Amino acid sequence: MSLTAEQQAEIARSRSETRETRRVVAEGLEARLYEAVPVLDHGFVRVIDYMGDDAAIVQAARVSYGQGTKAARDDAGLIRYLMRHWHSTPFEMCEIKLHVKLPVFVARQWIRHRTANVNEYSARYSILDREFYIPAPENLAAQSTVNNQGRGAVLEGAEAAEVLRILKEDSTRAYDHYEAMLAQDDQQGLARELARMNLPANIYTQWYWKIDLHNLMHFLRLRADAHAQYEIRVYAEAICELVKAWVPAAYAAFEDYRLGAVQFSGPGMACLRRMLAGETVTQETSGMSKGEWREFEAALKG
């Protein structure tokens, strides 16, 4: 992670300040506020602000369901009930704002989640830093032979070394040309909004990203999954730790009913019932396609 001495001093200054407030605070997240959590080679995630805690979820739910719920369930039990039955609006009462530094190609995948408020660093106004994501050797992999959007075996030896050489040289050359095109010395220079088009997708960008807890958990369910692309998954995993500190009861329910759970289709449930009854079921007798059957088997194996 690349933070300048000035940036580190600003973070330390922010973390040293305390203020009186009548707002509810989540003590676990207060301890992590403004802290830069390293991700990848130059990236990070920081919590800038948040609203609400586990109690805010319960408060919203009891407004919805009436006071009778309070005697029937404790707070954690109610949160688990809400999660189990997909009652989403109480979780929308909590929000979090993150400062994220990430490669552009990860940002383009991330921005597909259109339920957040985003403000990205402007390369029309400012000059981007010379920072590129270069994968660690263990994360260089060939194309999967069974999944068109996934990875297969890890590249090794001379082939891996050549890929790393190309990535580093291309990134350096592109940034050298970017700098050369900008206004400097006696040349008029190309506008920044045009010069940036020559930069590769592994250059780092930054943004502020604000989202409510319900939509954040949807993001995490997809991006913290083992099948998600490694480069976005590590960001999701870092955010999971922050959410655990923020709303521990909600996160525990999320782990049990979303992250650690699987969903079966109607044909899948029918096959499960047949199996539990002692019948041998194959892909040919399941009524599922080969792809569906492969996913069904993978879900059973865990």
Automatic annotation (TrEMBL):
Binds 4 FAD per tetramer. Each FAD binding site is formed by three monomers. The keyword DNA-binding does not apply. SUPFAM superfamilies: Thymidylate synthase-complementing protein Thy1. FAD binds at T89, R112, H113, R114, E120, D212, L213, H214, H218. DUMP binds at Q109, W110, I111, R112, E120, Y121, S122, A123, R124, R196, R223. Its cofactor is FAD. GO terms for molecular function: flavin adenine dinucleotide binding; NADPH binding; thymidylate synthase (FAD) activity; thymidylate synthase activity. The active site is at R223 (involved in ionization of n3 of dump, leading to its activation). Pathway: Pyrimidine metabolism; dTTP biosynthesis. It comes from the Bacteria. It catalyses: dUMP + (6R)-5,10-methylene-5,6,7,8-tetrahydrofolate + NADPH + H(+) = dTMP + (6S)-5,6,7,8-tetrahydrofolate + NADP(+). Its EC number is 2.1.1.148. GO terms for biological process: dTMP biosynthetic process; dTTP biosynthetic process; methylation. The keyword Nuclease does not apply. PROSITE patterns: THYX. Keywords: FAD, Flavoprotein, Methyltransferase, NADP, Nucleotide biosynthesis, Transferase. PANTHER family: FLAVIN-DEPENDENT THYMIDYLATE SYNTHASE. Belongs to the thymidylate synthase ThyX family. Homotetramer. Catalyzes the reductive methylation of 2'-deoxyuridine-5'-monophosphate (dUMP) to 2'-deoxythymidine-5'-monophosphate (dTMP) while utilizing 5,10-methylenetetrahydrofolate (mTHF) as the methyl donor, and NADPH and FADH(2) as the reductant. This is Flavin-dependent thymidylate synthase. The gene is thyX.
